[in-house]
Design a protein that fits this description.
The complex is a heterodimer. Chain A is of the alpha+beta class. Helix content of chain A is about 35%, strand content about 25%. Chain A has one domain: 2-Layer Sandwich (Heat Shock Protein 90), CATH 3.30.565.10. Chain B is globular and about 35 Å long. The chains are: A alpha+beta, B alpha/beta.
Chain lengths: ~150, ~120
């Protein structure tokens, strides 16, 4: 059972709230202070990706975050409900992509900036911030699972 | 914290002061400012990020987009940043090799003058 579950309307303004909640729960779960900024950034990236996916495909559906203290690990799962497209390429470096070359990666492209940021950029950033990242894509949507060590293991 | 933006000209270089959080919500405002400056023929830019508290990939995209725009006019966009938590995302993404990153605005301006 998740320690904290949050659902929010897919609006960019709510991403900040989501990452602040994640950092607060991580701190409460015993994640080292030095890692809290990484938790905040990674959760923000995952939520930004999910928000963008929902805004394009299902703006009425909320984005869901589950934060769980599993004793030795603090686990965050950010899930969207946007319809998945067929897998087309490989996962970004460092992720345990499970069919991760999907629509979810395409949606983080920043078109307003002339396409200078490659697709999958946000997930690549996440993979550099969390030592355990798993991206799964199903017909129900995309889930990004990230975890960090909690203080109990120290 | 919201995003605060300001800019001023020093030695023919436009310095953009950024304060607060640059994310998916606030980044469009920075994008609009950079586009506006380029449209007003400012092609030598320094973005001062010393008071930036948060930066995500959306913000990086805006900075890279700004760099692309000024380079189209043979200009450059350098950054001022000494905060490790902000520098880390530049390192993760390899963008430390793309941007000139300086410790102070004066150093950034001096470096630009040497380039000329």
């Amino acid at each position: 059972m998740a320690t904290v579950e949050v659902t929010f309307t897919p609006l960019p303004a709510h991403v900040r709230t989501a990452r602040l909640v994640a950092a607060a729960v991580a701190r409460r779960s015993g994640v080292d202070e030095a890692l809290l900024n990484e938790v905040r950034l990674a959760v923000g990236e995952a939520c930004s990706r999910a928000v963008e996916a929902h805004r394009r495909h299902c703006p009425a559906e909320p984005v869901r975050i589950e934060m769980t203290d599993q004793g030795e690990r603090f686990v965050v799962v950010v899930s969207d409900h946007a319809p998945a497209a067929p897998a087309a390429s490989s996962a970004p470096p460092g992720t345990n992509g499970n069919g991760a070359g999907h629509r979810g990666l395409v949606e983080v492209a920043h078109e307003e900036d002339g396409g200078v940021i490659p697709v999958g950029f946000g997930l690549a950033v996440i993979s550099g911030l969390a030592d355990d990242v798993h991206v799964s894509s199903t017909s129900a949507g995309v889930s990004v699972r990230m975890s960090w060590p909690s203080a109990i293991t120290a | 914290m919201d995003l605060k933006l300001g800019h001023y000209n020093k030695d023919d270089i436009e310095v953009v002061d950024v304060e607060g959080e640059i994310d998916v919500y606030t980044a469009p405002r920075l994008r609009e400012l950079l586009i506006d400056l380029v449209n007003k023929n400012n092609y030598q830019l320094v973005v001062n990020m010393e008071k930036v508290e948060f930066l995500d990939s959306t913000g990086l995209g805006v900075l890279v987009g700004g760099l692309k725009r000024v380079r189209a006019h043979d200009g450059s966009l350098d950054l001022v940043c000494t905060q490790e938590r902000i520098l880390k995302i530049f390192r993760i993404t390899g963008l430390t090799k793309v941007f000139g990153i300086h410790e102070t605005v004066d150093q950034a301006i001096a470096a630009k003058k040497l380039e000329k």
